[in-house]
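Q: Sequence in, structure out?
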Amino acid sequence: MRQIFLAVALIAAPVAAFTGFELYANNAPAHTAGLGDLSSFKAVVADVQGFAAKGDLAGAAKRITDYETAWDQAETAIRPLDQNSWNNIDAASDAALKALRQSSPSADTVNKTLAALMTVLDNPARPAP
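A: Exactly. Output:
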């Protein structure tokens, strides 16, 4: 009887350990498709969204320049890590910049492009909606 319990324990322990690891690995937050930590970019975009939500498109346009500068400075470091994901973010970034820099920006278009940029920053492997 003791041998049966020992055999069950010796089988159950590794199965439980591997299962636990798989559950952890599948539920752990994705590290943005190998591009590293994008939280600083997300924080700036969130600030820009805040300005836009208040109707301050001039303030949003000024703040997006901070994002653009940081994104451009980080290009040589992060672009080689995952070219496709980088391109997805860059395209969404360009759309947001273009929307904010129109001579008469549309609040609706600005909000949509900023939301799309944030979506791509959250999941860079997928292009902007």
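The chain has a mean pLDDT of 84.
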